[in-house]
Amino acid sequence: MITVKSKIFIAILILAAIFISGYASQPKKMGAFIKDGYLIGGSMDGNFVPASEIKNHLRGKKEYNLYSISSLAGYCWGKKPQVVGNPESNLYRIDFSKDFSRDMIAVYAKTWNPMPQKPVFDNYHFDDYKAIVREILKINGMPEAYANITQVAKIDLDQDGTQEEIISASNFGINSMAWLKKKKYYSFVLLRKKYPGETKNIVISGSFYLGDGLDVPAECKLEHILDLNGDKVMDIVLSESYDYGFIYKVYEIRNGQAVPALQLNIET
Ligand SMILES: [Ca+2]
Ligand SMILES: [Ca+2]
Fold it and tell me: How far apart are CA 240 and CA 149, in angstroms?
């Protein structure tokens, strides 16, 4: 027969086991990042994890850093994530102690600096940049399109001593009637990485809309360059805007390639 004392002892053992397992599952190094009020995802001990996983570790009130593309812009407090719609939606909103613009990202990272270096914005009127963009347009079926560069950001993503360039180009903002009639749009973000003796141009995200109904035009934008998983390599956050909403994408740089790490689709 189990005595009252034994029952209490067993109950204490069960509680201790629950406490220890909960403590053990807490990562030593944890990150979480939010755009537009939505949890994009997070990182645990250097690995990127989706919103559905990191949300379990954001139980209490947390302090977040706010970043624009070029600097640390302040701090705010964020509440526990709340699911949007049905639990299968994997869409979580976080309410913050203050409002901030869509250009900002809120980052929870207590054990490392997500912005150890800042991008430098270069003059994008250089012929070299235009020649690269023209080449990309030609490969994608738009040899006659005007090479409209919107931004060139320079930063040493992988800290190998050589700066990479992230070139953004788009004709979405150009009100050219001829082009509107042709219904040809392009928008892309390109990573340019130099190696000894060669330079590689990699389109990280791009939309080349030829007006043939086979694709949906999207505006691709470089949003942030931050170390979101604490491995000292800068990660890239891009957005794609469609008629029906947004997609946020996080890429990590591995062996000179931009590798997709996380994606969040938001329908508006
Ligand atoms: Ca580099
Ligand atoms: Ca990183």
Answer: 17
3 state DSSP class of 182: helix
3-state secondary structure 232-267: CCCEEEEEEEECCEEEEEEEEEECCEEEEEEEEEEE
Q: What is the pTM of this model?
A: 0.87
Among the bound ligands, name the one nearest to the CA of residue 115: 2
Closest ligand relative to 232 C-alpha: 2
> Tens of pLDDT along 257-266?
899 999 999 9
């139980």: which residue's tokens?
Answer: 59
Q: Which helix (H) or strand (E) holds 139?
A: helix 127-139
The residue ranges of every structural domain in the chain are 27-109, 120-267
In CATH, the number for domain 120-267 is: 2.40.128
DSSP assigned state of 122: P
Distance between CA 264 and CA 76 in Å, rounded? 22
Alpha carbon of 160 to ligand 1 centroid (Å)? 5
Q: What is the pLDDT of residues 169-221, one digit of tens each?
A: 999 876 566 666 667 889 999 999 998 899 999 999 999 988 776 667 889 99
Ligand 1 mean position to 119 CA, how many Å? 12
